[in-house]
Write a structure and sequence with these properties.
271 residues, alpha+beta, Pseudouridine synthase, two-stranded antiparallel ribbon, 6 helices, 13 strands, globular
Length: 271
Amino acid sequence: MKIEPTIKLSYVGPPKGFWEIPVLYEDEHMLALNKPAELLSCPDRFDPSRYNMMRLMHDAIAKGAPWAKQRNLTYLANAHRLDFETTGVFLLAKTKATLVGLANLFGSEAPQRVYAALVRGTPSEDHFEIDEKLAPHPLKLGTMRVDSRNGKKSKTEFSVREKFSGYTLLECRPITERMHQIRVHLEYVDLPVIGDKLYGGAQLLLSHLKSDYRLKGNKSERPLISTIALHAEKLTLPHPITNEPLTIEAPWPKDMTVSMKYLHRYLKPGP
């Protein structure tokens, strides 16, 4: 039987939802998916009733969905989290032994994670790091803030990939794993991620890039990126069972690729 290269998930709602999620890597121990935007990776700590990938996959396994039956899946557990809006590599364990191994790896900060982020603004240096403790915001439920007194250790390394007039494409390497870590650290240095409403990131509009832009009819302009411009593009770690080095990569979502095309076309490279 041919194994499907995607995981098909549906949600009755309201609202209804359907996702066809590409498989990035798979063996007898692990499954890695390219998580889409605006889908929780696992249960929301503030509202467990919200639909999420883990619940939908567990429901599909219980119902005998074709993709699960083809793989003889009876167990799946997430090794880490991705934000609701963030896309990219999402790693799952197929056995409890694999989950324990992955938990030990992530707990030791052994996995190397690489994110791509498109931000508004230009950093003063091409390579920099932010080592600022993070804690839940006391007034804004579901958000984080820099808190040097009560926060937990949080460190992210950044490198400039490309500069444009007013925008920068960054490579982000989180050393620790805190909720919204990259986004909060970038807001802290006034480099908000494009489309990140929670942390001050404005939308990217073609009218901001193209000087002779004209909107047809009475239509309203749609942003080039539908959610936030943050993508988990690479995960490198020792295999939790074989200890062999493993790198898993996820291609960019279409809207991020298109946005970069327009930035190249209409904006001059930055200094």
